[in-house]
Amino acid sequence: MLVAQIQKRQSRWNPKGKEPQLSPRHIEAFKLLTRYTYLTRLHFQAFLGGDTSSWQEALRNLTAAGYLERPKQQRQHYNANYRPLVYSLGNRGLYALQERGVDALKPRAHRNFAHELMTSELMASFELGAREMRVRLVTWPEILASQSLPEATKRAPKPYTIPLRYDGEDHQITADGQPFGIAWPNDKGTVFYFCAGIEADCATEPLETSDFERSSIYKKFTLYLEIEKHQLYRSHFGFPNMLVPFITTNRVRLESMKRVLERVTNGKGSKSILFGAPYPAFTSFEKPLPPSGFALTNNYERVGFPPFSFLTA
Predict the structure, then answer these.
(1) Whether residue 92 is found in the same domain as residue 137
(2) Which candidate, 91, 173, 202, 279, has a CA 20 to 30 Å from the CA of 219?
(3) What's the pLDDT at 11?
(4) Structural domain tally of the chain?
């Protein structure tokens, strides 16, 4: 009996199903996975509607046929057999989009599965929040096509990366996800907030290090503060402002990060660096949060400034 139960659980990793007839909803699911590397069934339902049983059958068939993939890294979680399955775009899914005239690319694989999953889910949360609150999400393709984006940035091999010079040396900083904006109308016109992406913090990166060449929260704060000081977001992206949401796994980590920023700025803080928590990491023992628009609708804390909301002027 135990062997049979184990075999039944393991079948979720090697699904068998019939060849699916692709529907418009399937195509929309593939499109989501060109924007967000990893998503769960719950995300497909949140974005596209439909009931649980229909999605379970569809995802099983789409995976068995090669339209979707179930990343092997998720099996490393201690509770892998009971967590929502994570999906990425398969080769057939990409070809299906291209055959329909969609200019799509398959997101590149990342070494750190937990970090990329967190990034995907948080970026998806901003889009869900924009839908929920009826505000406009300004996407990276829109920004790339905008006349406000400087030509030098458009021609750059990595236009989403901000180059800067600090302490006599050249550096560059690339946020997680892609640059985006939030736009909503009020009595005075339209309010715009822009981000170079987010900083999804799985609490694995050191807060401080004596080696500035190593990645650390201290180094990121230092470089983002330099960008804020010289308004490099204007010259690089053409943004009128730029916010940097740091979203981490728990309250203790958040408070530690705030103390580092306070020391870096001698207590002055920053109006552009935002702090949000908690978002349980894939590696944690906590249950994953259900998909929602919280990344947009929640208030963010700041050091030296009042809390910030993307939904107020």
Answers:
(1) no
(2) 279
(3) 64
(4) 2
